[in-house]
Amino acid sequence: MKPHSVLALLLCGAALAAAPAVALAQVSAFKAPRTAFGQPDLQGIWTNATITPLERAATYGARGVHTPQEVATLEGETSARVAASLAPSTDLDQKEIKTCEVRGFSGVDCGYNAFWVDPGTKIMRMGAEPRTSIINSTADGRLPTLTAAGQARGAERAKNRASGRSFEGPEGLSLGERCILSFSSSAGPPMLPLLYNNTYQIVQTPEAVMILVEMVHDTRIIRLTDRHGPTGVRQWMGDSIGRWEGDTLVVETVNLRREQSFRGASEAVKVTERFTRINPGQIRYAFTIDDPATFTQAWGGELSMNATKGPLYEYACHEGNHGMVGILGGARVQEKDTGKVTAAAAEEEG
Questions:
Q1: What is the distance between the alpha carbons of residues 348 and 106, in angstroms, rounded to a whole number?
Q2: Domain housing 332
Q3: Is residue 333 assigned to a domain?
Q4: Do residues 228 and 255 make contact, with C-beta atoms less than 8 angstroms apart?
Q5: Per the CB 3.0–4.6 Å rule, which of 93, 239, 298, 345 could disulfide with 290?
């Protein structure tokens, strides 16, 4: 960022200080529409695509709101990168195969090029505020420290990956690779943006709220009741119950399956979400993660769900696809080439 004059810094600081008050005034003046049965209306098709990261970059310190110049720079760089990645390729080996035109992928991981992804091009704005991170519960906008138990579980997962145990069978691969649930935490809870397919459809009835997730066509059913199901029954996306607090839908989810561990969370995790319609085209989505077995403190954040045109198209993913066969077949070939045979493979051969 270029140096500012003292006057420019003072004006910028004053504008940032005033922004929350302006945003709050705009939110408080809005009255959410009602459904035919009297509930605040959250229905519609929404997207949470954004270039704002979950954790805040260290350069921003405790500052949760971008300056206008930062927004212009970040969004400008993103637009330029998208335009460049969509331009006709002149060197397939160098441009597409080695870098995939998608950040974070290279070499044999180039399953996608820029045509297939849509992570968003804008900084996330909550009302009028352009946020520096989704997490807002900690001073630095970053995840809290893991407990000793949380660190031990993380070390065990890393050990399994390094040893190749993750490729012993389909159960060791991610839920997304198995087409069971969305990649990352798109379906939630919490519902967070990822590389593509960041669209949701909300439908309400007097007794329940349904959220159809574009990614892997997951469907969340939030029962409007005060009673959870049996603790011994664990479901994909957990057991979600909801209640209305004024214009806010408060959702509490427990009993998530062990395989659906968000950021290393334990089976005892409780996720609380809040959906509030703050203007005609935006829902404020807030979440809190409470898991003393993993994190040294409860933490959370918020992001905007912005109205978008529909309809949602089916994400045609199915378990047992040819990609799974290729992944596991490649692992067996690698074992033969390196002389390393997994315990499962040795038992099968013996």
A1: 34
A2: 321-350
A3: yes
A4: yes
A5: 298
